[in-house]
Amino acid sequence: MTEHDLQKRQSIIDACRRMNALSINQGTSGNISVRHEDGMLVTPTSMPYDVMQPDDIVFMSMDGEAHGKRQPSSEWRFHLDILRARADVTAVVHAHPVYCTSLSILERPIPPIHYMVAVAGGSDIRCAPYATFGTEELSANALAALEGRKACLLAHHGMIATGTSLDSAMWLAVEVETLARQYLTCLQVQEPPLLSVDEIGNVIARMSNYGHRD
Ligand code: 13P
Hints:
This protein is α+β, with helices and mostly antiparallel strands. The model has no long low-confidence stretch (mean pLDDT about 95). The protein has 6 helices and 8 strands. The chain has a single domain (about 5-205), classed as Class II aldolase/adducin N-terminal domain (L-fuculose-1-phosphate Aldolase). The structure holds 1,3-dihydroxyacetonephosphate. InterPro entries: Aldolase_class_II_sugar_metab, Aldolase_II/adducin_N, Aldolase_II/adducin_N_sf.
C-alpha cells in the first residue's frame, strides 16, 4: 500500500469517527466511499469505527468486484452506482442522523424552509421511496432522488450526502441534518412558510460567487 493509499483509507476512518462524534450517526449504521483509481474505497460492513484500520477498507472496482480482507458495506451498491453515474461526485457519506431519519420515516422531503437548502443543489432535498437496504431498487431510488442534487433522504432509513471531496460530503451531511432539525422544530408549531423556487435559484447563483462553493 502506498503512503497516498494509506492516507486516503485513514481519512475515511477519521470521517467515520467524526460522524459519530458529531452525532450524525450511531454505531456502525453509516458507511462512506471515496473514488479511487478505477473504482472506490468503501468501509467494511458492520465494523466498529474505533477498531477499523486502513487495511479493513475495501477496494471495489467499478464492476462491483471487491478486493480486501473484509466484506464491503451492505450499501456498496448505491455508493458504486452514485460514483458511476455522477462524474461530479468524489465521496459519498451515508448515515442515519436522528432528524433526517425522523423526516424520512414521515416520508417527507425538506422543502425550501431556509436559504441553505440550496447547498444541496436545488429547491428541496428529496426523500427517496423506501426499498430494502442493500438492494438495486434502493440504489435506483437514491439515484433518482439525487438527480440535480448533492443529498437526499431515504424513506424509513436515513440520508445520503455527496461531495467533490470527503470533507465537502461530510460538511453537507452535517448541514442537511441541521436543516432537518430546523424543519422538524418548525413543524411542532406549524407548517413553515417556504422560500420560492426562484429565490433558491438566486441563492445558488450568489453562492457560486461566495464562500459556499463545494
Ligand atoms: P454496513 O455496516 O453494512 O455499512 O451497513 C449499515 C447500513 O447503513 C445499512 O443501511
